[in-house]
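Q&A FORM
Asked by: J.P.
Topic: structure of CxC6 like cysteine cluster associated with KDZ domain-containing protein

PROVIDED:
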Amino acid sequence: MQQAGPLDLVPELVPNDDPGAMPLNDLFNNIILPVHANYHPLGAPRGYVRMAVMDGKSIGHQIRALGTCKNPLANYKDGRFCTDHLHLQTKCGIFPCARNVSAPGAATCNRVEHQEWHRKYLQRFGRLSYPGVRRVIRRQQEVGEGGAGLQVHQQLPELEGTAGGEVVHTFRAKTLYCIETVQWACGVPVGWGKCYWSESEPQVLEILDNIWEGNGDFRPSFIAYDDACDLLHHIVTQDPQNPWIQSTKFIVDAWHYIGHRATDILCRRWCNPAPTNGSQPDLVRTEVDNNGQTHATRAFNTETAEQLNAWLDGFESQLRQMTAVNFDIFMHVLFMLFKEEVEKRIREKKIELPENFWDIE
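REPLIED BY: S.T.
REPLY: Here is the structure written out as tokens.
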């Protein structure tokens, strides 16, 4: 076994916004590796490692039509704003017009072009519902990729030089971008969080911080995530001394790693889920098959989050219609039910840990 050496072959990467910031080459070279990621002589005590698997799931409740406010909507039936921003109902729904609406309950001001654009919007989306979209998709799948299928080609008109699809408006509440689920590699859920507007690295890091807040000593040894390389890049450039860097190694899950660029040296060197150079013996183990042949296999299942997210598909239509509070409660209940189901499978396979496991020194 050999430990991966310094990044002496890594070309200079995109610099930080700060002109005086250290190049990423030097930042990664100066990282203090987690204890489990360092080289261990053959036969030396290694202890135990744990892997958490994280993934985004496009499911969520309604949120405010515009802006970055995270408060719940005042009305989940047909509302567009939270209680703090209800006054925006009296303003034109075309942003950034800011004129008063033409009449109580109207969606736009008295400008003819705004009223006409809103009329076109209602023709296109006014009667569109989530079950309706699902029916369209199902019919298209029944026709098959080679058939004509059921397709909608109508487009929104241009407004004041802005393409119809790019016009910013508040005619309908938006939907939570996705939730981020975190599990142990055995399948037992750990926690979850919300990504409101995109699955961005700052929001993902905030979710991890919230889950392990006050329990830094229990952070996982590894975290498998489809965009682990960009998440690691974000953490290092924001704070090279971040506790996550010293406690956890971030790797890309096996499925998505196939699609990552071979020229991305940072990803290949630091986020490889199964390096074959012996640098990460905790990720790769040797097994002998029935024919006596020796094979290198992955030590952890890095796709457990995908399996949980597929299970959540059965509850998607209910979750999308819930208020923020009901959504949160229901998600916690689903996580508890899935945890009990996973633990039941583990017991049936008789692979659970013995009661005295954590007493072993």
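FOLLOW-UP: The chain has two domains: 25-38+47-60+176-349, 79-143+154-175.
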